[in-house]
Fold:
Amino acid sequence: MRRLFRAREFGILVVLAAEIAAFSILTHRPDRPNPMLDADNLLATVRDMTVLATAALGSCVIIISGGIDLSVGSCIALTSVVTAYAIVSGYSPLTASVLGILTAMAMGLLSATFITRAKLPPFIATLGMMSIARGLAYLVTKGATIPIPDSGFTRGLGSGMVPLPGLSVPVPVLLLLACALLFHLLMTRTRWGREVYALGGNEEAARLSGVPVVRLKVLVYTLGGLMAGLAGVIFTAYYGTGQSTAAMGWELDAIASVVIGGGSLSGGRGSIWGTCIGALIFQVLRSGLAMVGASDYNQLIIGAVVIAVVAFDQMTSRRVRG
Structure:
């Protein structure tokens, strides 16, 4: 357990607990149970953060490698649209989901191609892909949502629960935990993971030591597309629609989740478990703001948090380099 949760993860768990405690105080009334600590609310909060956290796992690996991906939210939307469109066109949910995920992986592969072959900075390449993916989603839907029929897909992956001793856990949460464990082992127990950290720490030194830099970047961005695609499939099952407007601005939330969880935009540092906790911190913030009647300030406060987190990361990185 100590290997899974290091000091940084423990620190942000404390931040998460403090955040929950603060909103509990703000929402407390003596005449009714505290809504923030209600078991159903906590379960809903965890369920709601799974889409962001799933996509953020891919962003975490990209950021560790020294890159950045601004197309995450758009890839989620494009996957959602492709999956829903395929289902209403008569394809099975499994086939439709695979098509959606492959579409997102293609977006990641294109980003990697622009970065490795055209030598575009990751920021520019993925910014362009953000517009392309969102534009394709609008092109398919003409701005409308695509509702899908209620089925085992929506009832299983979207709202399904797995009974465990003492509690029932949403299917998307179990899927997220399985992916997080797999990513943790991949990044900490394999040569590939060590090469990703080395690439982010010093690309030239990694190249001189024999790390296949180009191939690694291609794999990293394609993996990021895969996770954004999986997040898009979960989104479609959960909401029962394909939406071209899905996950607007989530690329910044994903990046901030990584940084809050111990990652650095300078590369070479990051934590899979920390990223999941970072995503949960953002979801608790959204839920808490809604409960205290401050939903109108949602984007304002989250934007300020993102800026503060990234600024803190940059100051820390400069201090380390100095």
Q: What stands out?
A: The first helix runs from residue 7 to 27. The chain is about 70% helix and 5% strand. Residues 44-159+168-248+265-270 form one domain. The mean pLDDT is 91.
